[in-house]
């Protein structure tokens, strides 16, 4: 039971990373009907940005605002930086192609992805980089017999706060309703007086910003980052998006958390080597029996 | 006799391309012959994906999985039982086709992006399973090595760069011939009809499910052939050659060239395989440039470099036929 609970906790930690990245995919797909393949690499870029801030800026920042302040500063700056990067990419690589069709946009997204991956390699080098160990003190707690590290608690609290805030914005505010309406039917939403430009600005800034945040947290959690990590996490997060129902924002959160838990339980109880196979098998089974995902709404087909 | 001459005159650009490809390997060194060999492999893979993506419009981002099945079928049967590569060529094609039929049957009803995602999952499952070395036959991350060269019996063994160059390009040529015929057949028209409007196709009596599966099986079979040639040329297969990234590259070949266009696929394959070689002097910046060029391509020429012309019914030929019947 203790092992099960610990694995659940590990699963939730990883799941919260997936959920944060998945939100970016889901929001962009919902409104633009575009699979933003560059999103995974934006996440990786965030991780590297955080790395630079923590390594080079560590002494300066922590001497002024303390250890916790340094960490928050790194996450914030990385999030803002990646948000801006997301906006630039949308402006340069996607905007001129929307009107042409969806497939050219997919190729463009793949191009951006290759570009970003290689720009990371050129700037930071092809080798693994290690996050500094001293960002968060390595404290271990025992809550009800379960071992938890301080870092895990910080990550879980931070990501759940972010998810809760986003859930509130999307589900409870007028602006969130506008986003949901645009995801359902962009043209009709525009006719109803929703400013699509603002929505696009929002999703392309916030999605990558959340991904960048996840990037810094992944770096702090695993302490090892590489320039190819974007593909791996991107693919998993994308799987999570589908699991929850693509375009559905609470669905992406649920999908991410579930995927993390599945992955951890699968590797703990069945086989570590096949954990990724399980992830994709679950994805395929979900798509066969419930193609809209767990929380996706049924959409009538337009002829 | 006259019609023969007309065919030759009408198709002179094709003949020039064939002549250039035949003479080319005698003018370049072995390194570049191998580069052009991989151009051929990519062309074959591009053609195979073009059936699924270009002709029928099904998004397939796991196509490398089919090639992996073909390559591993060849590798395992050859190293374990010593079956010659030439016999394994059709066996690999059938294995990959059968695999496609098996995994695509339950998912073929999915549309657009959903199909795309399932094929990503399928391709990744194939790769991850190969890495995990099921029953100890795939050799795990190291792969299978010591595969024989392609041999036509007796002294004719394909063991030099120039010979494998000709093997792959002859296969590409035959494939193109077959695919051009297929494009103008009942099957090709049914495929294009499904691509343009699935509901309309179904309502006119086209068995959409059957034709979609057929496209997948044929595409996978061709990818299996590519896998066979690839395995016997490199003498080693390993899971990392069949990554999701490679599937994406195939996707780009078809879209950069122009969906459903055979010359387009060749151009796309050339772009993907030759570009990184030509820009090798830029070393680590070359993939950076490559990504940027992909974006620029789609901005300035979203339909691809050589988009397929929409076929029109040739009334002229119909009239001639009618005239002949009357006379």
Give an overview of the whole structure.
The complex is a heterodimer of chains A (303) and B (327). With 303 residues, chain A is mainly alpha-helical. Helix content of chain A is 75%, strand content 4%. In chain A, the strands form two sheets. Chain A has a two-stranded antiparallel ribbon. A two-stranded antiparallel ribbon of chain A has the order 2-3. In chain A, strand 2 and strand 3 form a beta hairpin. Chain A starts with a helix and ends in a 14-residue tail after the last helix. The mean pLDDT of chain A is 85. With 327 residues, chain B is mainly alpha-helical. Chain B is 71% helix and 2% strand. Chain B contains 14 helices and four strands. In chain B, strands 1-4 form a two-stranded antiparallel ribbon. In chain B, strands 2-3 form a two-stranded antiparallel ribbon. The C terminus of chain B is likely disordered. Classes of the chains: A mainly alpha (303), B mainly alpha (327). At the A-B interface, helix 4, helix 9 and helix 11 of A face helix 6, helix 11 and helix 13 of B.
- Work out the radius of gyration of chain A: 19 Å
Average pLDDT score of chain A = 85
Task: Please write the string of helix (H) and strand (E) elements of chain B.
Answer: HHHHHHEEEHHHHEHHHH
Looking at how many chains there are and whether they match, the oligomeric state comes to heterodimer
Mean pLDDT of chain B: 83
The CATH class of chain A, by name, is: Mainly Alpha
What would you call the structural class of chain A? mainly alpha
**In this structure, how is the largest beta sheet of chain A organized?**
2 strands, antiparallel
Low-confidence stretches of chain B: 315-327
């Amino acid at each position: 039971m203790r092992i099960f609970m610990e694995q659940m906790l590990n699963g939730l930690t990883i799941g919260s990373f997936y959920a944060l990245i998945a939100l970016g995919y889901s929001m962009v797909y919902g409104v633009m009907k575009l699979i933003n393949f560059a999103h995974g690499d934006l996440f990786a870029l965030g991780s590297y940005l955080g790395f630079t801030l923590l390594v080079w800026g560590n002494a300066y920042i922590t001497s002024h605002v303390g250890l916790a302040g340094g960490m928050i500063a790194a996450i914030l700056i990385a999030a803002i930086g990646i948000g801006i990067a997301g906006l630039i990419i949308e402006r340069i690589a996607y905007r001129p192609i929307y009107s042409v069709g969806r497939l050219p946009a997919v190729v463009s997204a793949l191009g951006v992805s290759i570009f970003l991956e290689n720009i990371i390699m050129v700037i930071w080098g092809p080798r693994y980089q290690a996050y500094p160990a001293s960002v968060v003190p390595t404290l271990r707690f025992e809550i009800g017999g379960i071992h938890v590290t301080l870092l895990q608690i910080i990550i879980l609290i931070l990501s759940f706060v972010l998810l809760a805030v986003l859930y509130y914005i999307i589900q409870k505010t007028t602006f969130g309703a506008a986003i949901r309406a645009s995801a359902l039917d962009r043209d009709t939403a525009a006719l109803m007086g929703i400013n699509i430009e603002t929505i696009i600005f929002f999703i392309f800034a916030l999605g990558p910003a959340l991904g960048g945040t996840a990037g810094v947290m992944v770096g702090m959690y695993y302490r090892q980052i590489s320039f190819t990590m974007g593909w791996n996490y991107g693919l998993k997060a994308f799987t999570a998006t589908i699991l929850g129902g693509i375009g559905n924002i609470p669905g992406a959160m649920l999908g991410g958390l579930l995927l993390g838990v599945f992955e951890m339980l699968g590797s703990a109880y069945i086989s570590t080597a096949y954990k990724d196979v399980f992830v994709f098998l679950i994805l395929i089974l979900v798509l066969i029996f419930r193609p809209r995902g767990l929380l996706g709404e049924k959409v009538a087909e337009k002829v | 006799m006259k019609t023969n001459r007309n065919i030759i005159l009408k198709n002179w650009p094709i003949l020039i391309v064939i002549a250039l490809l035949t003479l080319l390997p005698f003018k370049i060194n072995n390194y570049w012959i191998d580069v052009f060999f991989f151009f051929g492999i990519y062309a074959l893979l591009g053609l195979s994906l073009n059936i699924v993506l270009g002709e029928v419009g099904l998004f397939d981002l796991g196509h490398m999985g089919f090639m992996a099945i073909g390559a591993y079928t060849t590798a395992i049967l050859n190293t374990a039982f010593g079956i010659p590569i030439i016999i394994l060529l059709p066996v690999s094609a059938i294995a990959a086709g059968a695999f496609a039929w098996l995994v695509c049957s339950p998912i073929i009803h999915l549309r657009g992006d959903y199909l795309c995602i399932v094929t990503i999952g399928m391709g990744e499952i194939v790769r991850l399973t190969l890495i995990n070395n099921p029953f100890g036959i795939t050799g795990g991350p190291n792969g299978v090595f010591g595969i024989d060269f392609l041999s036509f019996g007796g002294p004719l063994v394909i063991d030099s760069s120039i010979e494998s160059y000709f093997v792959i390009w002859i296969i590409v040529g035959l494939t193109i011939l077959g695919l051009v015929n297929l494009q103008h057949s009942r099957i090709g028209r049914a495929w294009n009809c499904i691509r343009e409007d699935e509901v309309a196709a179904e309502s006119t009596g086209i068995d959409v499910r059957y034709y979609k599966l057929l496209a997948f099986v044929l595409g996978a079979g061709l990818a299996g052939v590519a896998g066979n040639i690839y395995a016997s040329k490199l003498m080693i297969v390993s899971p990392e050659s069949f990554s999701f990234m490679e599937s994406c590259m195939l996707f780009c070949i078809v879209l950069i060239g122009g969906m459903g266009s055979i010359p387009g696929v060749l151009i796309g394959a050339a772009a993907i395989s030759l570009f990184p070689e030509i820009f090798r002097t830029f070393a680590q910046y070359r993939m950076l440039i490559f990504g940027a060029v992909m974006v620029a391509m789609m901005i300035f020429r979203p339909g691809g470099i050589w988009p397929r012309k929409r076929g029109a019914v040739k009334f002229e030929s119909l009239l001639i036929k009618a005239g002949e019947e009357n006379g």
